[in-house]
């Protein structure tokens, strides 16, 4: 997974990069295609509305000069309202393309809402010609601001030409303002504004015509070089000088219409240019995206192939290592414990990567070293076991002879003090015999003691207590008459003796050690309870785990010989030994003997009086 993760990082980056390139290029193409939609829903309705407002401004200026123009004003206002309604309806379809466009369209709506107030001032005579012209100018300026806002496009040539065409349209707007101010005699303020409009319009025309494409510039050049345009320039100079030229309205009206038609043709031409460019951009986007996608696919395929091959080699190496750790080495150790010969095949991992081959060889070397170490450890353990067994057997022989001599001496002794000393020596010999048997058990062999017939469990417990140094503290409570199978008696005496001795060692000298037994559903249970300081929960859990699963004997852990002996004996006969806390604060050891080792009491046994608790003593 880490290899795949390392591969996914650059692959994911490539996919993201491909997506970004595709999205950017496609977005550019879509924006060019939306240029036509913007023209239809915003710019063309705005041009039509500008034309109607320009006419209303002109007839309103005429109305202020001649009241007979009232019918024409009313008719023009209806046309302006119709153009305004059309603009509101169409602009609502595209004004949400961006926050800037929405803000500008809302500004136009605000200006359009002023029309009724402007008209009211004109109808009531509260507005003069200069104020009327400037009021309408604010509405037209908002519409041209919208033109400039929506003319933004990613294609630089179209954007530049579109801005120039808008400037040409604004030059025509300045001409219509001159047209309204030039009707009749103008006062000083009107002449001053008129002169500013003339200068601005001429400057805009000069600037725009210099950079327009020939196809867009030629119609404009034809207009400004026409006789009518030259005549209008002369009239402008006369008005600035304070004169009142004849035919001003007719001359400017024809020029305004001509400029308006040229403006619409230029805008339509730019709109038509956007579609082929959009197609080229889209084709380039498809080509670029397809090439990038092919490269991404090839990269993914190559990376996955390399990653999969490397992953398979590593997985094979992992499986081989797990096989060595979980199967081969445990099997080798098990065979060595049984004394069998072992042969370990060489660890081989098929791969094409040098590093993985090296790791495989290293694992093979580790395996061989581990096997050699296991063989050495097995030989060492076997040697130690032989030493334990030989020493224990020799000690058993000597102790057996010693006990025979002690028994003879006990029979011949007549002095009570000497007899007591002989009993003490006999008890010491019994304990030494148990320790010798412990060495035999640790070596893996079986002690020599055994019984051919079942023995009452009470006698088994008494025999175990007799092998403990502090036997005077042991209290054996009455227990049922079940008997223990003869082959198990010796090991059971040793096991219980180890538990009783452990209880006497780890409890105060003045406290008793209670031993009780009773029949259980699955055999017979014997409890050894002391009144010592007890153990913590962690220690109990650790000891119970060792008793349930006998560990390998560790020479360095000689302080727990009794625990090793008990666990070995319990495992040999499927006996379960459990430690738990005692109500008196000490520890209780519970020995559960399986029912296959327990026999019922003898039927012929006569009834005896109830046995009371007794203390085991060895004396005359």
From TrEMBL:
Keywords: Kinase, Membrane, Phosphoprotein, Transferase, Transmembrane, Transmembrane helix. It catalyses: ATP + protein L-histidine = ADP + protein N-phospho-L-histidine. The chain crosses the membrane at residues 281-304. This is histidine kinase. Residues 600-620 are annotated as: Disordered. Its EC number is 2.7.13.3. GO terms for molecular function: protein histidine kinase activity. Residues 490-597 form the Histidine kinase/HSP90-like ATPase domain. Gene3D superfamilies: Histidine kinase-like ATPase, C-terminal domain. GO terms for cellular component: plasma membrane. It comes from Nonomuraea aridisoli. SUPFAM superfamilies: ATPase domain of HSP90 chaperone/DNA topoisomerase II/histidine kinase. One of its GO terms (biological process) is phosphorelay signal transduction system. It is an enzyme of class 2 (transferase).
């Amino acid at each position: 997974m880490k290899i795949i993760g390392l591969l996914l990082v650059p692959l994911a980056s490539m996919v993201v990069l491909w997506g970004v390139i595709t999205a950017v290029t496609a977005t550019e193409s879509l924006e060019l295609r939306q240029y036509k939609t913007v023209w239809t829903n915003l710019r063309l309705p705005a041009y039509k509305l500008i034309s109607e407002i320009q006419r209303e401004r002109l007839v309103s200026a005429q109305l202020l000069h001649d009241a007979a123009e009232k019918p024409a004003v009313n008719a023009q206002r209806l046309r302006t309202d119709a153009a305004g309604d059309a603009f509101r309806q169409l602009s609502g379809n595209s004004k949400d393309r961006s926050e800037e466009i929405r803000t500008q369209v809302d500004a136009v709506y605000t200006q359009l809402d002023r029309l009724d107030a402007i008209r009211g001032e004109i109808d009531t005579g509260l507005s003069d010609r200069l104020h009327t012209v400037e009021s309408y100018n604010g509405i037209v300026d908002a519409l041209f601001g919208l033109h400039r806002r929506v003319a933004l496009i990613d294609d630089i040539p179209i954007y530049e030409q579109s801005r120039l065409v808008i400037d040409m349209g604004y030059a025509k707007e300045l001409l219509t303002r001159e047209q309204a101010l030039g009707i009749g005699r103008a006062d000083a303020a009107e002449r001053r504004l008129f002169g500013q409009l003339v200068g601005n319009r001429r400057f805009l025309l000069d600037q725009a015509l210099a950079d327009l494409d020939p196809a867009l510039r030629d119609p404009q050049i034809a207009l400004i070089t026409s006789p009518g345009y030259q005549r209008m320039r002369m009239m402008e100079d006369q008005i600035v000088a304070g004169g009142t030229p004849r035919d001003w309205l007719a001359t400017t009206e024809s020029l305004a219409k001509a400029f308006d038609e040229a403006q619409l043709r230029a805008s339509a031409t730019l709109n038509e240019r956007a579609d082929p460019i959009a197609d080229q951009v889209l084709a380039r986007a498809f080509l670029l995206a397809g090439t990038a996608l092919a490269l991404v696919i090839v990269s993914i395929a190559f990376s996955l192939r390399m990653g999969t091959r490397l992953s398979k080699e590593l997985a094979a190496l992992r499986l081989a290592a797990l096989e060595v750790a979980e199967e081969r080495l445990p099997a080798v150790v098990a065979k060595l414990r049984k004394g069998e010969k072992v042969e370990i095949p060489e660890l081989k991992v098929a791969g094409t990567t040098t590093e993985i081959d090296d790791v495989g060889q290293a694992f093979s070397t580790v395996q061989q070293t581990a096997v050699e170490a296991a063989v050495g450890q097995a030989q060492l353990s076997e040697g130690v076991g032989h030493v334990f067994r030989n020493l224990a057997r020799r000690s058993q022989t000597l102790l057996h002879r010693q006990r025979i001599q002690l028994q003879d001496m006990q029979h011949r002794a007549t002095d009570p003090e000497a007899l007591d000393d002989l009993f003490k020596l006999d008890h010491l010999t019994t304990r030494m015999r148990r320790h010798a048997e412990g060495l035999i058990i640790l070596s893996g062999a079986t002690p020599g003691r055994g019984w051919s017939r079942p023995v009452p469990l009470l006698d088994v417990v008494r025999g175990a207590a007799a092998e403990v140094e502090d036997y005077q503290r042991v209290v054996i409570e009455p227990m049922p008459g079940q008997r223990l199978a003869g082959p198990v008696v010796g090991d059971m005496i040793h096991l219980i003796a180890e538990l009783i001795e452990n209880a006497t060692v780890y409890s105060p000298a003045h406290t008793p050690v209670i031993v009780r037994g009773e029949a259980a559903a699955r055999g017979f249970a014997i409890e050894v309870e002391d009144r010592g300081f007890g153990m913590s929960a962690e220690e109990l859990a650790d000891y119970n785990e060792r008793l349930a699963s006998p560990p390998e004997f560790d020479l360095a852990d000689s302080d727990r010989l009794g625990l090793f002996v008990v666990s070995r004996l319990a495992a040999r006969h499927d006996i379960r030994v459990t430690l738990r806390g005692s109500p008196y604060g000490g520890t209780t050891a519970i020995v559960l003997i399986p029912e296959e080792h327990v026999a019922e009491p003898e039927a012929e046994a006569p009834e005896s009086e109830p046995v009371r608790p007794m203390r085991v003593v060895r004396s005359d």
